[in-house]
Design a protein that fits this description.
This protein is α/β, with parallel strands linked by helices. It has three domains: 173 residues, ANL, N-terminal domain (Rossmann fold); 180 residues, Rossmann fold; 97 residues, ANL, C-terminal domain (GMP Synthetase, Chain A, domain 3). The protein has 15 helices and 25 strands. The protein is globular and about 70 Å long. The structure holds adenosine-5'-diphosphate. Adenosine-5'-diphosphate binds next to strand 14, strand 19 and strand 20.
Length: 542
């Protein structure tokens, strides 16, 4: 090796909190508390508290490598855990508050969490399983309401621990290859699996997120992560926003459309991120009760496909630019972003919305290919569908404490996403479906996502899910499950509408109306439940 190379400076998380408190000490982190009041403090104060937390963790006996759970909304305390736990060398394990008690117990036991930080308003969700948890030695509670009791065993109070701890603390994360965080997939297609991020992978991901080709927040931004901190590390936004000293707005438990609308308007939010269900709800809220959300420069959406109609409606009705992103817990999570390129600048509005509705370009740092069932690489022609495989600086190499099995990782070092996609000659990716959700009818693939997007653009439809149901003749056939916007549903009209875009064999065999589509813990349509309802005969005809 040649001598005189650059410094070998470690990619460790303390860099972010040190940098922010030095460069932007006065900038603020704001949290909407459970009682509706605002809590606000500066990055300088934030760093002092993160240091205190390091000492508090040490007092609790937390050692480097230990897993420490968080069971919380998005708030300043959760942000302190995001930094304080990894900067103390331990692993922040963000627990999804919407998992079933069985799943929750499963992931806590599997991760072997020693300590769990619990938000007061969420106590009822964890108290029933607390006694059965195999490895948890201590619960630390915060945000308890006045007079609220707590029946957890071995409890400490966060603010008591913090008051007793000094601000004088040496970071304990000198090695960039230490584990930083653990996040389990939300279980949309099976039991949750753990993804273990390192300091190095998360720092590279944060740099990736900061690129303008990805999300690119800057100091002038006001960033609102509606996406929960337990959903794929809030898509990396807290780390990216903090590094550049953006104002961070934390919504706490106030995730309903009305308070979100008020929050965006009153705080002048410029970047907001959430799943399509959230933005669908906000859109209908704003139509009913207008608010000014024109401060938003990027309404980031991911987790599921954002229907094109909604992207168009946000821009047309509110002048808001929707940024469609694709990612996975296994990818820290950012994979691709649908931003326009030079050759799109002359397109008319329709043409632009067509591009923005796709999943977009792989961001710098992510390498991708598509393959067929036999693992042969397929062309990027915009038409050939294949399984998407990725590799890169922030892509999982295996699941936490599981073998590196072939179902998810190829022999030649790629991660199998389980998404079926096309990629066009210019590199724009479009998700057709998840392998487990595709409808395979008479040997042909039908994209449930395409059908759903078209259905939801129909004026009578509020929500739509398409599932495969077993069929003797064709193997599988599509069934559409709808939440109508108004009374008086007409299947023939929907068929005619779908026929404008799709071949006849794509048309659902039946339309079924429900009051609400069941959702997973991160707000995605839960097709596992719908398939079960169908198998149990619980889905009648419209
Ligand atoms: P889970 O696997 O439990 O659903 P993730 O949130 O990690 O948890 O899910 C990642 C998956 O979500 C992707 O593989 C893809 O199927 C889907 N997804 C994410 N973003 C998008 C998007 N913009 N459009 C369509 N699907 C998306």
């Amino acid at each position: 090796m040649l001598s005189g190379l650059m410094m070998d400076y470690p990619l460790t998380l303390n860099t972010i909190v040190d940098h922010a408190s030095r460069m932007t000490p006065e900038k603020t982190i704001k949290t909407k508390l459970p009682d509706g009041r605002w809590h606000e403090y500066s990055y300088a104060e934030f760093r002092r508290r993160v240091k205190r937390l390091g000492n508090a963790l040490q007092a609790l006996g937390v050692e480097p490598g230990d897993r420490v759970g968080t069971f919380a909304w998005n708030n300043f305390q959760h942000l302190e855990f995001y930094f304080g736990i990894p900067c103390a060398g331990a692993v922040v394990h963000t627990l999804n508050i919407r998992l079933s008690p069985e799943q929750l117990k499963y992931i806590i036991d599997h991760a072997e969490d020693r300590v769990i930080f619990v938000d007061g308003s969420l106590l009822p969700l964890i108290e029933p399983i607390a006694a059965q948890l195999e490895t948890v030695e201590r619960f630390v509670v915060f945000n308890l309401a006045d007079g609220q009791s707590c029946s957890l065993p071995n409890v400490s109070h966060y603010e008591d621990l913090m008051a007793a701890a000094s601000e004088d603390y040496e970071w304990r994360c000198a090695d960039e290859n230490m584990a930083l965080g653990l996040c389990y997939t939300s279980g949309t297609t099976g039991m949750p699996k753990g993804v273990l991020y390192s300091h190095r992978s998360m720092m590279l991901h944060t740099l990736g997120a900061l690129a303008a080709a990805a999300l690119g927040p800057t100091e002038t931004d006001v960033v609102l992560a509606v996406v929960p901190q337990f959903h794929a590390m809030a898509w990396g936004l807290p780390y990216a926003a903090a590094w550049v000293g953006a104002t961070i707005v934390m919504p706490g438990p106030h995730l309903q459309p009305a308070p979100l609308a008020v929050m965006i308007e009153s705080q002048g939010v410029t970047i907001a991120a959430g799943v399509p269900t959230i933005w669908n709800g906000l859109y209908h809220e704003l139509r009913g009760r207008p608010r000014d959300i024109s401060s938003i420069t990027q309404l980031v959406v991911g987790g599921s496909a954002m229907p094109r109609g909604l992207i168009e409606a946000y821009e047309r009705d509110f002048g808001v630019n929707v940024v469609h992103a694709w990612g996975m817990t296994e990818m820290s999570p950012i994979g691709s972003v649908a931003k326009l390129q030079t050759r799109h600048l002359d397109l008319d509005a329709d043409g632009r919305w067509d591009i923005k509705a796709k999943q977009g370009y792989f961001v710098p740092g992510v390498d991708a290919r598509i393959v067929d069932d036999a693992g042969r690489e397929l062309p990027w022609d915009g038409a050939t569908m294949g399984e998407l495989q990725v590799r890169g600086y922030w892509v999982a190499g295996q699941y936490y404490r599981l073998e590196r099995e072939r179902e998810h990782f190829t022999e030649d070092g790629w991660f199998r996403t389980g998404d079926v996609v096309t990629i066009d000659p210019q590199g724009i990716m479009t998700i057709t479906d998840r392998t487990k959700d595709l409808v395979k009818s008479g040997g042909e693939w039908i994209s449930s996502v395409d059908l759903e997007n078209m259905l939801i653009s129909h004026p009578d439809v509020l929500e739509a899910a398409v599932i495969a149901v077993p069929d003797e003749r064709w193997g599988e056939r599509p069934l559409a499950v709808l939440v109508p916007l108004a009374e008086g549903h007409d299947p023939q009209a929907l068929n005619d509408y779908l026929l404008e875009r799709f071949p006849k064999f794509w048309l659902p065999d039946d339309y079924v109306l429900v009051e609400e589509i069941p959702k997973t813990g991160v707000g995605k349509m839960d097709k596992k439940v719908l398939r079960q309802w169908h198998a149990d005969g619980k889905l009648g005809s419209a």
